[in-house]
Amino acid sequence: MTMKSDKTELISLLKQLPSIADHREKEELFKQMMSRMNRTKRKKTKNFLAPSLAAVAVIFLSILLSTSFLSKSNVTLESQSSFQENDSGVEIALTNEEKPQLTNKGSLSIDESESKLSTGDHQSITENNHTKESFGLLRNEIDKSALYKNDLQQDETSITLGIPDKEAMNVIPVTVVVNKHQDKTIADYYNEVMKTINEEKLGLSDYLPYNGEFSMDKNGELTLNLFKNHAYTFGSTGELQFFASLDMLRYASLDQIKLTEESVPGVYFTHIGKNVVDYEITKYPKRGFLLYIVNNHYFLTPNPKVSDTVSETLELMKEANPTYKLLPTIPKQMNITAEELNEDELAITFQNATLKNNESSLRMVEAILLTAKEFGYKMVRFNNGNINQIGDFDLTKPVEVPIAPNKVNLD
Fold first, then answer.
1. Per-residue pLDDT tens for 233-267?
2. Do 290 and 301 meet the contact criterion of CB atoms below 8 Å apart?
3. I need a surface site. Which of 8, 19, 61, 310 has the fewest CB within 10 A?
4. Cα separation of 170 and 211, whole Å?
């Protein structure tokens, strides 16, 4: 009998066998297989069995993990962030990772119909209860985020610090209210707050205190003495963050700070290539304010883009900056004009807009007020908004610009 006839006969015989089907679930088979492996664990087996059984297990687990991964991928794709706006404020969609868990009275609350935080299918998220302390920002339901003159008692003052985000993209201004003491200077307040503030709780990087210490002489000149092992001169990012952080001293009405290293005047910065003895604080940076969201925290943050005019800056505030993870504070379709009434007062006029007393409108008003401050204005008059009151702001008369942005708790 030839090989070919043998093969043909064998195939014929196999076809005559009854069909066999195993209807057990794959989970049951895997469980039985693992049980047998455990029973024979102490028995001496041939070397070729271990790789074979391991291969079967790997293949089975790979199938299960692949199925789980594909399912998770679908959820992620359906939840990609996007920006949406309406005529009453900015409507934002965030990924599941970025979505804040919002709260009722005592913390930030978003009007679902005006400023939604939704998934990719535009489904509004539900509000969860969080206390003011867990949120960090001193905000009530439709309350201001910045610090204003009438917020301070006579025995209080404020300290504003610049803290980088965890991606080292933005330097976020945060403001703390402290009690005044007759025997303390602004340097003492800065040193104390820097050591006390919890950046991690705010969702920011662990940047403070500086690797150094503030002091103030009898003439009122502020000095930052850096210790020998500081790292602020290593790399361009480190230098830029350091200078941006120092620029927040402008909220304390400071225009210059002396830098020393181990009490020796001057610090050499390799990126700018010079020894800095007196750092000139940028008093009017001419930047608009965008929205930075991290964990449960909303921060009005300076736009990295700079413009020479208020009108151009307001236009930039309609644009998101994905690189810096900054969201717009003015709806894209809203037409706004800016006019200087005098050196201290700016007029903002809305064209065919109806503002509403909600969180998104309040955020826009505060962002505009902070932007006006960046250009040196002290008051802003809002015209043609078709509303008299937003939060605590009386729009029938000029509104005073804030002392500083993003009031936070030390607790």
1. 988 999 999 999 999 999 999 999 999 999 999 99
2. yes
3. 19
4. 20
